[in-house]
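Q: Okay, next protein. This is DYW domain-containing protein from Vitis vinifera. I've checked the sequence twice, so it should be correct. Can you predict the 3D structure?
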Amino acid sequence: TQPDHITFVGVLSACTHAGLVDKGLEYFDSIKEKHGLTHTADHYACLIDLLSRSGRLQEAEDIIDKMPIEPDKFLWASLLGGCRIHGNLKLAKRAAEALFEIEPENPATYTTLANIYATAGLWGGVAEVRKVMDARGVVKKPGLSWIEIKREVHVFLVGDTSHAKSKEIHEFLGKLSKRMKEEGYVPDTNFVLHDVEEEQKEQNLSYHSEKLAVAFGIISTPAGTLIKVFKNLRTCVDCHTAIKFISKIAKRKIIVRDSNRFHCFEDGSCSCRDYW
């Protein structure tokens, strides 16, 4: 059976998520050279994702400049995501500007760019992004996480105190946080979008919706029960690290399905190998 355009989207995506950069480049070249097919916008988007995630941002930019077709929103979003991971502000601005032209109503672009400014400590940049959002009437979607226990769905927002077991959840997270720090966990405050003291930033991170949902799942089920949590946005770097620690301390397998992929946490590691 001859592979078609769709086959290579699957193959290149797999290489991206597995971190197989050189293999992915090899497959990309083979589309034209070996199989006589033309490169589509999807193939280029996968290629830029592959290079951006691995930090090869200059290569990614060179390819964009030489592309025979117009880059689409998926390509620019992949580049922006890579810039966030690797802290490339100059290229992030280029990707964000392109995305503002294509889909000015998408809050994800503004949030990612603001995160990059925040990480660099450029709070004026964060304020500027917020100003543009206000002027264009763009509203960031609130992060939601939910878990089903005994056929009942429990939904959590960041800092949520409305749940009936809110007190127990927060107490449990407090104890977990202490154990996690003893095991070597350091809160990643880079992506907290407020210019506040480190201690306050840590406090903000402690009550992200996925942490609340995971904590509720653990206190509501017998030891060893699999925990399954869903989130409407991409899980943040700190929560990803924290849930790895939680899986080891609580001796639980924890599955989190965010807007990007499934994460299967077990004994201190994640199936995505910190590459998402």
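A: Here is a summary of the prediction. Strands lie at 144-149, 152-157, 227-231, 254-257, 262-266, 269-270. The first helix runs from residue 5 to 18.
Q: Noted. On to the next one.
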